[in-house]
Amino acid sequence: FVARVKGVPARKRKDQIDKAMTICGIGEIADRLIGKLSKGFRQRVCLAQALLNDPEILILDEPTIGLDPVQVVEVRKLIKSCAQERTVILCTHILPEVSETCDRVIIIHKGKLVALDTPENLQEKIQKYTQTLFQYYGENGQMIDKLKALPGVVNVSKKEPTFSGAQALMIQSEKNENTLRNISTFITQHGGPILEMKKISMTLEEVFLELVTEEEF
Description:
The chain is of the alpha+beta class. It has helices spanning 2-5, 10-24, 39-51, 69-82, 95-101, 119-126, 143-148, 177-190, 204-216, and strands at 57-61, 87-91, 105-109, 112-117, 130-136, 153-159, 167-173, 194-200. It has two domains: 2-87, Rossmann fold (3-Layer(aba) Sandwich); 128-200, 2-Layer Sandwich (Alpha-Beta Plaits), CATH 3.30.70.
């Protein structure tokens, strides 16, 4: 029925249905009523219906709403698979979904386009300072105050370490590799061996809030 509504020629319907069912992994439930399926499988059926006429552009509106974590991961994989052969536009308010699924991001606020870029580029543009998590063995002592006094360091805060017996500091600094090099050298010389040095990027939620705030003010 759906294939007919979408204008799929009669001679191609079986092949297109089989192809869509294979892509969406619903062959095993082909003979079951949609009303008896889990929400995850219903989403798969809806996606298969959308693929029947092999569209060049596929628009999905909140495809993971109401799904459990396992189903969310499965639908994400399915969306990425579909995106290999066509353009997929994902409309969602769930920004972690965008980070996990999309290559490019469009942010619209109050009907106005405020950003268009890759998630990585948006995070890099909006994040004013580099945030780096340092974990090292040694005593904190006056380390925080001493680090704050280094050129290029904006802020230093203590964090919960993930290594037993270690110290953990989140250091906000100017976007400068020399500054990071000086910080790591200082920690090694005055604190102890560095176990981890990890750059922390802004989340898309933080990017969105920053952009929206700029627009409103």
